[in-house]
């Protein structure tokens, strides 16, 4: 958990350093691609700030104004990040096509731009793996979005590396062609994150991930005839569950209440992602357990 809490600041400082280095090397070495890659890293600085803001806001306690907490801020900011990256990728696509069909051949950039691209590839790939690991562990969509933002930056640095080296051998067209391919990869990854964040804001079901596990846990408990009508939704990093359990119609109200509490406690204990469970107790009709 501590790893996830500081991930935003780690991403912020790493990407800020990359911005300064890439733009400096790009200006000195005469590489427009390296400067553009520096601007891409600047977008990751914005993403890191969004992660830090999300963690501060979502950690606030529930209050009279927000009875269910601030968990959904994570999906709102994830959607913003995804849209932001897609917009930047489309701008890169436009510039790459323009360069491919119309710009005159210029003198190749200095090899320092290629060295900078290698440093960026290593740094952003390690940051991607670090953030993806933390995001999966705490089930945080915004950290995963930040991870993919850094993976996108890694791909753009690969494009810079290919472009600089190919320019040295006279193949100037490989730079924009590689950039176009990278844009396709970026848009595909970010489109999925954007759709997932919109679905979460609309309380889209996550039964595909949790239903079988919930049914298995509840079904093995005594005094329960069946479990039906399972509903799930994601609130930030946590899951809320509602379900109906069918019990023997001859059991008393007190027994039914105890059974409900046992089901709630068992699910909260066995499924780490669950924050809240609502159990409706229904009698079996015309049957006995």
Can you put this structure into words, describing what you see?
- The protein has 289 residues and is mainly alpha-helical.
- It folds into two domains: 2-201, Up-down Bundle (Alpha-lytic protease prodomain-like); 207-283, Alpha-Beta Plaits, CATH 3.30.70.1350.
- The chain has eight helices and three strands.
- It has helices at residues 2-29, 32-58, 73-101, 112-138, 141-168, 174-201, 207-219, 253-270; strands spanning 226-235, 238-247, 274-283.
- The chain has a three-stranded mixed sheet with strand order 1-2-3, with helices on one face.
- β1 and β2 (238-247) form a beta hairpin.
- The radius of gyration is 25 Å and the shape is elongated.
- The mean pLDDT is 80.
Topology:
Blueprint: H1 2-29, H2 32-58, H3 73-101, H4 112-138, H5 141-168, H6 174-201, H7 207-219, E1 226-235, E2 238-247, H8 253-270, E3 274-283
Parallel strand pairs: 2-3
Antiparallel strand pairs: 1-2
């Amino acid at each position: 958990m501590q790893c996830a809490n500081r991930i935003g600041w780690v991403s912020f400082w790493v990407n800020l350093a990359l911005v300064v280095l890439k733009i400096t090397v790009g200006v000195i070495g005469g590489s427009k691609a390296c400067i553009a890659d520096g601007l891409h890293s600047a977008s990751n600085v914005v993403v890191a700030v969004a992660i830090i803001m999300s963690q501060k806001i979502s950690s606030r306690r529930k209050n009279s104004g927000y009875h269910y907490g601030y968990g959904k801020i994570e999906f709102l900011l994830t959607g913003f990040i995804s849209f932001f990256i897609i917009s930047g990728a489309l701008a890169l696509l436009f510039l790459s096509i323009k360069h491919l069909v119309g710009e005159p051949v210029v003198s190749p950039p200095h090899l320092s731009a290629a060295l900078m691209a290698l440093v960026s590839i290593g740094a952003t790939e390690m940051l991607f793996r670090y953030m993806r690991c933390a995001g999966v562990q705490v089930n945080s969509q915004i950290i995963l979005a930040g991870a993919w933002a850094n993976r996108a930056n890694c791909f753009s640095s690969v494009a810079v590396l290919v472009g600089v080296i190919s320019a040295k051998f006279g193949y100037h067209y490989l730079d924009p062609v590689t950039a176009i391919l990278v844009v396709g990869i970026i848009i595909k990854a970010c489109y999925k994150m954007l759709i997932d964040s919109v679905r979460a804001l609309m309380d889209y079901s996550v039964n595909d991930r949790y239903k079988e596990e919930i049914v298995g846990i509840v079904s093995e408990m005594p005094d329960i005839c069946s479990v039906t009508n399972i509903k799930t939704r994601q609130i930030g990093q946590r899951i809320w569950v509602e379900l109906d359990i069918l019990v023997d119609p001859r059991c008393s109200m007190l027994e039914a209440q105890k059974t409900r509490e046992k089901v709630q406690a068992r699910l909260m204990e066995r499924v780490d992602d669950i924050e809240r469970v609502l159990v409706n107790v229904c009698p079996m009709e015309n049957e006995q357990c």
